[in-house]
Automatic annotation (TrEMBL):
It comes from Thermoanaerobaculum aquaticum. The lineage of its organism: Bacteria, Pseudomonadati, Acidobacteriota, Thermoanaerobaculia, Thermoanaerobaculales. Probably acts as a heme chaperone, transferring heme to an unknown acceptor. Binds one molecule of heme per monomer, possibly covalently. Binds 1 [4Fe-4S] cluster. The cluster is coordinated with 3 cysteines and an exchangeable S-adenosyl-L-methionine. Keywords: 4Fe-4S, Chaperone, Cytoplasm, Heme, Iron, Iron-sulfur, Metal-binding, S-adenosyl-L-methionine. GO terms for cellular component: cytoplasm. GO terms for biological process: porphyrin-containing compound biosynthetic process. This is Heme chaperone HemW.
């Protein structure tokens, strides 16, 4: 039997576009049937080349929870015939709180979905309105409660550095989250260098947004709050109760094989990297001609593989073996110099044969990681 792999499927359709979004998404829901036919075709074509049992399956978006039952059923029928899942496979579906209903939970479970990642972002209605989110704080609470009661592993997404997110509102959001007690929490700082509507708002009303120092305080405060609540900070942006780390995401960070289908989807082999076109029309037209919609495919040199491995391992709380980092000193002298600076400043720590970044180090890790790309 071929070695197990992971599979990511991108489902780009949304009811509306959030103010911070830079993902490959579409609100042209009339294209959904055509897109789903193309996606099923890509799954079938990929299985002919790389049929493997799946240890994880991830349906991301976009808003996968919007998909009608008949479309999801057809998709899983093709998946089951193309990529058999291991009995212990993690199957994740991303969901908006306002899509969570008892009927949908029963249906998702019948398909084999056992983990749901919920885009909460905040438990403050004022902040949610500025983000152009469709749900309310109360809908988010009810969604998490319903998912937990139904037996799903539940992950909740939060965002920091948001307009209107002051210390009081952050503390209220964290308290609400911990009371609900999801298994997993992902926390993201708003990236102001991306082309989204909030970046344009910041140009006109900078005072609505926290300073870089305040955003850093929010991140470190969140880390301490979640740690005290029993969550382990196992990756830059991710916390989990013991045993509930995101197994699919760990495959990326640990260099596993992750197959990928869908518009804008990115996949990786041991040395190969590839991506599909982010253009929805081009994606569908390619697959209607039975052609893979690749926009690039590359193969890393052994040195580049090692550099990427060190970068990804430094995203994890376990860090990387000192010997592996040291092996890059000759070819990546800037990385080696910066790592020394991080150690001297307390942004990284070496214990025994491993080196890892601290939470403060993770806050400024992009400078270090840029030397490894």
């Amino acid at each position: 039997m071929a070695r197990p792999a992971s599979l990511y499927l991108h489902l780009p359709f949304c009811a509306s576009r959030c103010a911070y979004c830079t993902f490959v998404t579409s609100t042209e829901r009339e294209l959904l049937p055509r897109y789903m036919a193309a996606l099923r075709r890509e799954v079938t074509l990929l299985a002919r080349l790389a049929k493997r049992p799946l240890r994880t399956l991830y349906l991301g978006g976009g808003t996968p929870s919007l998909l009608p039952a008949d479309e999801l059923s057809e998709l899983f029928s093709v998946l089951n015939g193309s990529f058999p899942r291991l009995p212990s496979a993690e199957v994740t579906l991303e969901a908006n709180p306002d899509d969570v209903t008892e009927e949908r939970l029963t249906f998702w479970k019948s398909l084999g979905v056992n983990r749901v990642s919920v885009g909460v972002q905040s438990f403050d209605d004022g902040v949610l309105a500025l983000l152009s989110r469709r749900h309310s704080a109360q809908q988010a609470r009810v969604a998490l409660q319903s998912l937990l009661a139904a037996g799903f592993v539940v992950s909740a997404d939060l965002m920091l550095g948001l307009p209107g997110l002051n210390r009081r509102r952050l503390e209220q959001t964290l308290e609400a989250l911990v009371q609900l007690s999801p298994h997993h929490v992902s926390v993201y700082l708003l990236e102001m260098d991306k082309p989204h509507r909030l970046a344009l708002l910041a140009q006109r009303h900078a005072g609505l947004f926290p300073s870089e120092e305040e955003a850093a305080w929010q991140y470190l405060t969140t880390a301490r709050f979640l740690r005290r609540a029993g969550y382990r900070h196992y990756e830059v942006s991710n916390w989990a109760r013991p045993g509930f780390e995101a197994r699919h995401n760990l495959r990326y960070w640990q260099g596993g094989v992750v197959l990928a289908c869908g518009v804008g989807a990115y996949g990786q082999g041991r040395r190969s990297r590839w991506a599909n076109t982010p253009n929805l029309g081009e994606y569908m037209a390619s697959l209607e001609s039975s052609r893979f919609p690749r926009t690039f495919r590359s193969y890393l040199t052994p040195e580049a593989v090692q550099a990427e491995k060190v970068m990804l391992r430094l995203r994890l709380s376990r860090g990387v073996r000192w010997q592996e980092a040291e092996a890059l000193a000759e070819n990546r002298p800037r990385f080696w110099q910066l790592l020394g600076d991080f150690l001297a400043a307390g942004l990284a720590r070496r214990r025994g044969e491993r080196v890892r970044l601290t939470p403060r180090g993770w806050l400024v890790s992009n400078e270090l990681f840029a030397t490894l790309v």
